[in-house]
Structures are given as C-alpha cells and as structure tokens.
Amino acid sequence: MSKRKLVVLTGAGISAESGLRTFRDSDGLWEGYNVADVATPRAWKRDPQLVLDFYNMRRRDVLQAQPNEAHFTLARMEQDFEVTIITQNIDDLHERGGSTEVLHLHGEILRMRSEADESYRQEIYTDIALGDLAPDGYQWRPDIVWFEEPVPMIEEAIPIIQSADFFAVVGTSLVVYPAAGLLNYAYHSVPKFIVDKKVPQTRQISNLTIIEQPATIGVPLLHQFLLEAIK
Q1: How far apart are CA 189 and CA 205, in angstroms?
Q2: What gap in Å lies between CA 91 and CA 10, rounded to an integer?
Q3: Pair 141, 149: CB distance under 8 Å
C-alpha cells in the first residue's frame, strides 16, 4: 500500500528553536540590521560589502546551529508518509535532521551564485569576499532570494501542495508573500494543520486543526494526529 502524501510548509519558527533568529523577532530588525540595508537588490548595489558581511555572519550561525526535535520528527515521519518539506528558511537544518525531500523557496545560505547569471552556482561553507568572482567574471553573491526579487520556486511548490493528502504549516507567521499564499493551494477536502506558538489569523480555512505550541512540542503532536488519521 502506497504512503499518503504529507506536505509541510516551514518557516522561521522551526529554526528559531535551534537558535537562528528571524528579523520578525525584533521589530523589523534582523540581528540589529534593517532588512532594507542587507536583504534587497538595492542594498547589494549600494553596499555589497555590508551585504556580504551580514550573510557571512548568517552562514557561520547556520553552521554552528543544530537540528532540533521538530526537524528530527519531520524526518521520522518519512517512515509513515511520503513527506515533502517546502521551507522558507535558508538554513540546511531539515537536511541535517534527516529529511530527504526539501524545497527551499528563498534560497540557501550554503550556496552562492553569480550576481549576473544564476546558472553559475556552487556550495560555500566559508565567507564570500568582495572580489571573489564566479566563472563568468562577476561577483559571487549569496544564493538567497532577497526582498523585492521574484520567488521562482513558488511555481514548483504549487503542484506539490496540490498533490497533498495532508498539509501542515509549521513555524511561520503566514505574512511573507508569496509564500503565505501557498496555503490556498491545498484542496478544500485536505486536512490542514498549523503548528505555531502563536497561530496567525487563519480566516475561513477548511478542515483546519490548530496546534498552538512551539515546533519542538507541536510537531510530535502533529505526528500523532496524522498517525491517528491513517489508522
């Protein structure tokens, strides 16, 4: 018998429990930086050194962080379900936690790409310096989708969500678009779950179960709900 399909959209809340903060924790500041100064194409043109310094720090933070129980539980769910993680996070904690199908909507901090040609990409585990050039002769930049840039992986995420037998949202405020709109692509009849320590306004979402807990507590509860559902 084939496994049921579980699609999980994750956000900053799941990584926060591994010590990785989000700019939304601190009134629009991200580790003391205004997002407009470090996470937009305009910021890159204005002060690429500042942007590189900021993301070099983020990369070091990610490399020091460890997956938490929520990451490990999502990986264990693959024993019972066909699981795809769609994450807004730029860290690799899902992969290190053991999940095998992970789609990164907003890029990955452990990758860099040419500022001119996105086809030039490679992994990076150290700092990117100003003057480090891709094979096309242009500066390497973090392989991150900045604010004001399109999110091309959204188009890949939509059919995955439409294929779900169960859909869960974990640790996201559901206010960063276009990712927040993905919930609307889950079919009306599909059981939906939201796991967050402060569940956002959910309007008229059908077949919704709310688990108002931090991810490390809520995801194991989600697993139990889902196991009951397939008995």
Answers
A1: 11
A2: 12
A3: no
Enzyme catalytic residues: 106
Q: Are 22 and 16 in contact, with CB atoms under 8 Å apart? A: yes
63 alpha-carbon distance from chain centroid = 16
Q: What CATH fold (topology level) applies to the domain 22-64+109-144?
A: SIR2/SIRT2 'Small Domain' (3.30.1600)
Q: At what angle do helices 69-76 and 215-229 cross, to 10 degrees?
A: 20
pLDDT tens for 7-53 read 999 999 999 999 997 655 554 456 677 888 999 999 999 999 999 99
**Ordered DSSP codes for the chain:** -PPEEEEEEE-HHHHHTTT---GGGGTTEETTEEHHHHSSHHHHHH-HHHHHHHHHHHHHHHHH----HHHHHHHHGGGTEEEEEEE---S-HHHHHT-S-EEETTEEEEEEEESS-TT-EEE--S---TT-B-TTSSBEEEEE--TTS--TTHHHHHHHHHT-SEEEEES--S-STTGGGGGGGS-TTS-EEEE-SSPPP-TT-TTEEEE-S-HHHHHHHHHHHHHHHT-
Per residue in 158-185, pLDDT (tens digit) is: 999 999 999 999 998 666 666 668 888 8
CATH of domain 1-20+67-106+151-231: 3.40.50.1220
C-alpha angle 65-66-70 in degrees, rounded to nearest 5: 125
> What pTM, to 2 d.p., does this model score?
0.91
Give the integer Cα–Cα distance in Å for 194 and 211: 6
